[in-house]
Write a structure and sequence with these properties.
The chain is α+β, with helices and mostly antiparallel strands. The protein has a domain of 87 residues. Helix 3 runs antiparallel to helix 7 and helix 4 crosses helix 5. The chain is 50% helix and 18% strand. A hairpin with a 2-residue loop joins strand 4 and strand 5. The strands form four sheets. The protein has a three-stranded antiparallel β-sheet. A three-stranded antiparallel β-sheet has the order 8-9-10, with helices on one face. The protein has a two-stranded antiparallel sheet with strand order 1-2. The chain contains ten helices and ten strands.
């Protein structure tokens, strides 16, 4: 590796027999290489490598001075932590899947106003057989039974995808739906419309809504939730802010409700 654009930054006395000349580089890019008082440091693609020719010279790693004999161990720890962080970030990422082709084709052929009305009725709990058949009426079915069958097939397909997202966020499907309705019906409706209108390719708003609903759902006054948790073997305590902390099963210590979500998520 070539060294470019080095400039002496300062020079002091030579009491130790070696002038304390400090260098800095202005080289930019992915690779960099510094030599200071017999110490060489290199950085490639964000991974730091450090060596020294002087047993007394401290090795600077990320702005921290490390003894030469400890530098390699320190770097290994940094690299291991970086790998753990990358693995955690990778596990946090969700793969967005669109609806299956048959569902997408039918949704594309539906009157979008009828489709939006059906979603609104679902949020209000008023989506009955007549509403389902009416949502697909423009497909030209001659009888209600056939229209109802197609409409229910669409609902089942959407429910499967909704369940996948809910479980990835820590919910069972029914609990997710209940929590979303309790949290904010208007925002939930917007999230569902975004998800359906993009044929499942954009679920960011729906996931955000579920996370907000999760936080709102975990309150000390939610007796139904606390009862279910206790039946599943968890201990539940109220916090001063009106929330809850949970302990039991795989949770050895008292854990906040938002942190509990990580143990329930199915990735």
């Amino acid at each position: 590796m070539t060294v470019q654009k080095y400039q002496a930054h300062s020079m002091g006395s030579q009491e130790s027999g070696e002038a304390p000349i400090h260098y800095q580089t202005t080289e930019s890019g992915v690779n960099s290489h510094n030599i200071v008082n017999g110490k060489s440091t290199s950085q490639t693609s964000g991974t730091l490598r450090a060596v020294t020719k002087s047993k007394d010279a401290g090795v600077m790693i990320g702005g921290i001075s490390v003894a030469p004999e400890e530098a390699e161990e320190f770097l290994n720890e940094i690299n291991e932590e970086q790998v753990e962080i990358e693995q955690l970030e990778q596990s946090e990422e969700q793969v967005t899947e669109s609806f299956d082709n048959s569902t997408t084709l039918i949704l594309d052929d539906l009157d979008q106003g009828d489709l939006a009305n059906a979603v609104n009725k679902a949020m209000d709990g008023t989506l009955d057989d007549d509403s389902i058949a009416n949502a697909v009426k423009n497909l030209g079915f001659k009888d209600k039974e056939t229209a109802l069958g197609v409409g229910n097939n669409i609902i089942n397909s959407l429910s499967e995808r909704f369940q996948n997202i809910a479980e990835q966020e820590g919910f069972e499907m029914e609990t997710a739906w209940e929590a979303l309705q309790q949290w904010n019906k208007v925002e939930t409706s917007k999230a569902l419309h975004d998800w359906i209108n993009t044929r499942g390719t954009d679920d960011v708003r729906l996931r955000d809504a579920m996370r907000e609903a999760w936080s709102s759902y975990g309150k000390a006054d939610n007796s139904q939730l606390i009862e279910v948790l206790e039946q599943d073997g968890y201990e539940v305590k109220r916090t001063q802010s009106g929330g809850i902390v949970v302990r039991g099963n795989d949770l050895d210590d008292w854990t906040t409700w938002n942190e509990v979500r990580n143990s329930f998520r199915k990735l």
